[in-house]
Amino acid sequence: MREIPPVEDLGDGVWSIPVPIPGNPLGYTLVYLLEAPGGPVLVDAGWHHEESWRALTTGLERAGTSVAEVRGVVVTHFHPDHAGLAGRVREASGAWIAMHHADAAVIRRLRTRHDAQRWEEERARLRRAGASEDEARAATDPALRVDPPAQPDRELSDGDLVDLPKRTLRTVWTPGHSPGHVCLHLEESGRLFTGDHALPRITPHIGLYPFDDPDADPLGSFLDSLDRLRGLDAHQALPAHERRFGGVATRAAEIAAHHEERLDRLLGLLDGEPATLWELAAALGWSRDWALMPPASRRMAAAETSAHLRVLERRGAVVVTRSADGVLGWRARDPVR
Q: For the region Disordered, what residue ranges are annotated (predicted)?
């Protein structure tokens, strides 16, 4: 577990408040407080847990304010370590919650779909990906379910200004890690709140859900989004995890190069008969050995492998096949003769 850093005054009316993620190796989410007339605005809110809530409220007090004074919460993306406490902040203060409309749509779907139906559909997809019945059931255990976060009051689009009086906080749509992930550019200070889009050491999970969605291309969107960072006048990145860093454009290029290396490695695995998604994910290589991964982590690894395969499909490098029993496979496209 990572050591949780202290609450910090970053200057220019910006504070960093670490909010723990109990039981998660990431350790904490960095929630940022932006001072403004009418009350502070938070960038993200943290995981929905009592320990996290105590850290957030204590951190706000150390910054000279309280949860009751919060004007709004702008969420970089809908994942629970970012949006989980937003609803509770709204209950305590009457604050608005804002996020990109694509992630707001995801939350609406999650809140209206019946869990039993959702998980049965997911098990069928996992079987089509090459997972065994036991693996498919373990990866969709209802105990793994996390309640969706609060529905936002306000929906943002690319280029929109966040309601932050006397300051300019602009929405930069950076899809990939989620459909509606945004970075937030505090233009007068050259600071960029990057959420999970750009982190100083690790790369965010980019997964294709569902695996066989013919229209989605999250990694392609992510790589395009990284290009956008290179054109921004931002000298410092304030990510949601790890630490602040400079050289935003350089880091964006490094992350893109990492994914190009993964694409090359994956293409190198496709040198014979069609392979299933499960087989390719097991062979691709991860920070943790495939044999030691719990089922839910294997599902995430398969989703990330699928996102890379989709890019190779769009580039015309691979061909998708389907067996008689519906299992998908991938092979390298035959060379032109």
A: 125-160
What is the block-wise mean pLDDT of the chain (337 residues), using blocks of 10 residues? 88 97 92 96 97 98 98 97 98 98 94 72 87 86 80 97 96 98 96 98 94 91 94 93 95 96 95 91 92 90 96 95 89 69
Q: What is the C-alpha to C-alpha distance for residues 68 and 273, in angstroms, rounded to an integer?
A: 61
- In this prediction, residue 6 carries a pLDDT of 96
For β-strands 14-20 and 318-322, DSSP reports them as: unpaired
Query: What is the residue range of 70's domain?
Result: 8-267
Q: What pLDDT score was predicted for residue 115?
A: 66
pLDDT at res. 37: 94
In a domain, residue 131? The reply is yes
- How far is residue 215's CA from residue 110's CA, in Å, rounded to a whole number? 19
Name the maximum alpha-carbon separation found in the chain.
71
Confirm if 113 and 66 have CB atoms less than 8 A apart: no
**Considering its fold, how many domains does the chain have in total?**
1
Report if residue 41 sits inside a domain. yes
Residues 6+ apart with CB under 8 A from 136: 122, 123, 126, 127
Judging by DSSP bridges, how do beta strands 41-43 and 72-74 pair with one another? parallel
pLDDT of residue 114: 61
At 121 the pLDDT is: 82
Assess if residue 55 is contained within a domain. yes
Cα separation, 243 vs 147, whole angstroms: 28
Residue holding tokens 């202290």?
6
At 247, which CATH number? 3.60.15.10
Report the pLDDT value the prediction gives residue 134, as an integer from 0 to 100: 87
- R_g over Cα of the chain: 21
pTM of the predicted protein model: 0.94
Residue 92, SS3 per DSSP: helix
Q: Determine how β-strand 236-239 pairs with β-strand 154-156.
A: unpaired
Q: Report if residue 116 sits inside a domain.
A: yes
**266 φψ region: left (φ > 0), alpha (ψ -120 to 50), beta (else):** alpha
Q: How far apart are CA 166 and CA 307, in angstroms?
A: 40
What DSSP assignment string belongs to 132-152? Answer: -HHHHHHHT-GGG-----PPP
